[in-house]
Amino acid sequence: MFTLRAAVVWTVNDFPAYAMVSEWSTKGYMACPLCKEDVTFDWHARKVCYLGHRRWLPWDHEWREKDKEFDGNIERRLRPREWSGDEILEQLNGLDFAPFGKIVSRTRPSTHMNWTHKPMFFELPYWSKLKLRHNLDVMDVKKNVFDTLVGTILDIEGKTKDTIKARLDLERGLWMNRDSDKARMDLAFFSMKPNDKEEFLKFVSSVKFLDGYASNIAHCVNVDGGKFTELKSHDCHVFMQRLLPVGIRHLLPEDVVKPIMLLSRFFSQLTAKTLRKIGMFQLRHDIVQVLCKFEMIFPPAFFTSMMHVMVHLPEEALLAGLVNYRWMYLIERLLGELKKSMSDLIRRRRAMTTTQSSEPPAQPTFAATAPALMDHLAVGPAGSQAPTSSTSSVAQPVSARRRHRPASTTNTTLTNASGSQPGETLPKFRQKVSAFSKWARHRGDVRNSKGFVSGFGKIQGGSFDRLRRSAILSALGLATFSPARTVLFLGAHEATSQGGHPSWDCSSLQLA
């Protein structure tokens, strides 16, 4: 017998969840949870911008004396102070928060700054002694920085920070040009021209990676629209480190390319598998240089809270070590697998609602055998029996042929071979086939929306998994069957009779 004790070392979460865990709001004027009230902010383009990164430069740096290249002021301030856990706890103990469960007013007292509640983690006796309590998620930061940077240099509508409001907040010489009564916003020098943008997108679409290294980014490139679509976090991770420095080298001015390449190298070294202390000190210097150069290039609206928190990433790496154990990729992959398994389970349960399986849904088994299934299938007019055949027929989409449904349906029913038990009517059968078609199309089994199960009828071996084959018959509500003798093809087509009324043939089955 022994006593096992556990301790919470730190938390790993994205930036919105950072506010929920730390109880420091990541919105508003003091959105940075590390700088707190010492953060430098300003109001531009009807949004809060976080500037003043010259404060992290050495005291004798020449950029501190330049005012026209920056915000018009000479920087004499030091970098923001670092708050210890004891100081934060003392500050929280002096604040009066509303009790839990009570509706709190949106307006907080100025003494509360951005604190919303007292974090529950401070109830732990050692929490105030930790130097790093909450990790900034490098995955989330990198994704947002990529969207802001690429959206601005490609001038993507909705993602660029070079907007009309941003131009109006600049000096008079940088305003929009006016032709009579209309205003014309010329393309900024840090944005690609249309021809250069097309060349850049074609370059990205032509790149191919090794299997497993990254997804096919070419599928996310819209050359005609001049933008990227459906880029995942890992796609942005690879794009930032591998493609962006190469693609923009000859398409943008050198003053714009150099800081972007330095930013790419910063993320590449920060997310490496081996970190050295001297390298982290160099990265801390490099990221300040990058942000200061960006302040001389991009408008103030470019500097969101995610652009600002990059300055704190090397500090956290010095305290906690490798980023690979402190970002959300591991958790997101696990959550993705869980969501996928749960969604598959829900679909299976919905598809098997008409069956009467007695086994648990995790590993479904089916009681009826294939010969019993053959006896169960017969489609035709009431009291008749459809002929059986070993050849498969090409399936036709029921959902796509609804417009040919007659006004009054005949008494066509789905019965068993003996005809003693009446089955379902044709409209209900159509609904089930249509429901399965939508389900299979969502799963990717139906590539062609005009085919009922296109690709499924061509299967000649065991390439189609058994569970999905079972879901087909279960969704149609026809029968259950044994995995030992699975059905590879279910032919269902609509044949128009001479009288114009549709009849159904679901008897053609090919057994494995």
UniProtKB/TrEMBL annotation:
Segments for region (Disordered): 379-427
Family matches, as Pfam families: DUF4218, Transposase_21
InterPro entries reported in the protein's UniProt record: DUF4218, Transposase_21
Compositionally biased tracts (Polar residues): 385-396
Biased composition (Low complexity): 407-418
Domain DUF4218: 270-342
PANTHER family: OS08G0208400 PROTEIN (PTHR10775:SF185)
Listed name of the protein: DUF4218 domain-containing protein
